[in-house]
Input
Amino acid sequence: MTTKIYYLCAVLLLLGMPMAGFAQVQEGNLVGWWRFDDGTDQTGNWGDIALEGATIEDGQLVLNDGKWAHSIEYSGPDITELTLVVWVTLDNLDLRRGSALTLDALTVDQFCGIIYAERQPRQWMPGSSHFRRTDDFPDVVNEDKTGEMNLVAITYKNVNNQYQITGYRNGESLGSFNKGDLRTWKAGNAEAIWGTRHTAGTDNKQTRNFIAAHLEEARIYNVALTADEVMSLHEGGLTPVEPKGKLATQWGALKTR
Output
């Protein structure tokens, strides 16, 4: 066992990969996972990303004013409790009311999103249809830098049939509030959106509110992550891509020892 761990650490150091990156937080409840190396979802629950002016460049989804992206054809389990997670670099602090990540329904006005500067300038907030699941976080942070990547997460936990909504920035809590009756997103009636807050169903007529940002990775869980789990995402960093070619052969051999 000691020899196996030694070789494992040696390979990880050679590849520049943190060991924590290979262990997924709540892997069984990860229902949407986009690395943006291409337009696919790692869980297999979503159709390919449709780029509506946005681009995928060097492993990032690039969003700007009037440029967004989305994915439909959801085939995974029901989503009632949820967590939205995104690694995001803002390119413009003053463009307002866009989304780093939204979970929307196709047939009804029902969405939750990580929204930038809708109610207050330079602040992240939980966006929702008609503000049913929206308030300002009590310990909110004002963004003051472009070009700096931050992990932003919002959790929606069922507490007595009402959502307890908590925000996080780089693993630190922005505070919580309780608001909104429970909603469910089902297979065939869900949409993941980046750039704009929400759409009006399958006609894709969106709200004309956008964000200018580079996204490194995005996740949707059908469970409310704990504070420790969100912190572990921040401390573990982005999930490394497993090695390819000759190193992939060496990595595969190590895993079977």
